[in-house]
Amino acid sequence: MTDSAPPDRSIDSTEDPVCGMVVDLDEADARGLKVTHHGREYVFCGKGCMLEFRDDPERYLRADYQPSM
């Protein structure tokens, strides 16, 4: 038997997956606050959230993860 991970949670294209803030796509692009993971682009409110996501993206994509500031 193998354990299967819970499905990824649904994240809007303008939502920071770490803290849940709504992000302006143009501003995130201009500030370099984007990461591509498994072919999908994620945007972030700031460098701290982006770095946390980059270190452990699966943590923030789990269905049971609750974004918080």
Structure, explained:
The structure is a single chain. By secondary structure, this protein is α+β, with helices and mostly antiparallel strands. It has one domain (11-63). It is built from three helices and two strands; from the N terminus they run αββαα. It has helices spanning 25-30, 47-55, 57-61; strands spanning 34-37, 40-43. It has a two-stranded antiparallel sheet. The longest helix is centred in the last third of the chain and has 9 residues, at 47-55. The model has no long low-confidence stretch (mean pLDDT 89).
Throw out a few tags for this protein:
29% helix, 3 helices, two-stranded antiparallel sheet, single chain, 69 residues, alpha+beta, globular
Low-confidence stretches: none
Give the count of structural domains: 1
User: Biggest sheet, strands in spatial order?
Assistant: 1-2
- Please state the structural category: alpha+beta
Q: Report the sheet with the most strands, covering strand number, pairing sense and barrel closure.
A: 2 strands, antiparallel
Shape summary = globular
Question: Which whole number gives the mean pLDDT?
Answer: 89
Specify the helix fraction band: 25-40%
Give a concise summary.
The chain has 69 residues and is of the alpha+beta class. It is built from 3 helices and 2 strands.
